[in-house]
Design a protein that fits this description.
With about 230 residues, this protein is mainly β. It is built from one helix and 15 strands, in the order αβββββββββββββββ. The strands form four sheets. The protein has a five-stranded antiparallel beta sheet, with no helix packed on it. A five-stranded mixed beta sheet has the order 9-15-14-11-12, with no helix packed on it. A three-stranded antiparallel beta sheet has the order 8-10-13, with no helix packed on it. A hairpin with a 3-residue loop joins strand 14 (about 205-215) and strand 15. It is elongated and about 80 Å long.
Length: about 230
């Protein structure tokens, strides 16, 4: 019995001394995140303003309301004068410039009489301006009527001088204080300037009258003139 126990103890000691090593656990490497590159700021491209100037070659040139000789004259430029160019017409035959004689204003010059310095073809195309009636002057003849009361009806004549700043189609209508209105009339302006409209009206009794001219197109305007009519028995 003692020998059996001794044998078991020796066997246990021998097994412990064999030093069976358990497999070394695999080392799991933690992936290292590479530092992200600091983003570079986007380069800011600053648009360079288009610089175009002109030099007056002729002794005296006209600067007009629109791109053509049919538009009203706004200013004049002298030889060796310079100006900034802001635009052009679609064929680059007229240039839209800052008016040197009118701060904040613009006008058009012919490209034939100036020397442009810069890329004219890169300038924006500027549309022609909207033409308007700028003035209406109305008068009646006679401006006052005094007649015998048996001398009615009397005829009065109206004349309107209408000024436009360029080529346009004018439409107009007369209106009288008696409630009568004319049909719409038309008048073609082939160029800037003043044209005359004439008409007449018959008065049947003494009173204080007025007549109006209504400009309908290209823009609306109204001009009125008054005229008294009286009679003696």
């Amino acid at each position: 019995m003692k020998r059996l126990i001794l044998l078991i103890v020796i066997l246990s000691t021998w097994l412990s001394a064999c030093n069976f090593k358990s497999p070394t656990p695999a080392v799991t490497s933690t992936p290292t995140t590479a530092p992200s590159a600091t983003p570079r700021p986007a380069s800011t491209l600053t648009a360079v303003p288009l610089e175009v100037t002109l030099h007056v070659k002729s002794e005296l040139i006209n600067c007009r309301f629109g791109p053509g000789t049919a538009y009203v004259l706004l200013n004049e430029l002298h030889r060796d004068q310079f100006a900034r160019v802001a635009g052009r017409n679609d064929s680059s035959t007229w240039l839209y410039i800052r008016d040197p004689g009118n701060p904040g204003g613009f006008c058009w010059v012919s490209a034939d009489v100036v020397e442009a310095q810069g890329q004219v073809d890169q300038l924006p195309v500027t549309l022609p301006p909207f033409v308007t009636v700028t003035d209406v002057s109305l008068r009646v003849e006679p401006s006052r009527i005094v007649v015998n009361c048996s001398q009615f009806p009397q005829t009065v004549f109206f004349e309107a001088q209408v000024t436009a700043n360029g080529p346009t189609l004018l439409t107009w209508r007369w209106e009288a204080s008696t409630g009568v209105s004319s049909n719409d009339g038309t008048l073609i302006f082939e160029e800037a300037g003043t044209q005359v409209i004439n008409d007449y009206y018959q008065i049947g009794a003494p009173n204080d009258y007025w007549v109006k001219l209504h400009v309908l197109t290209p823009n609306e305007m109204v001009e009125q003139v008054n005229f008294p009519v009286s009679c003696t028995p």
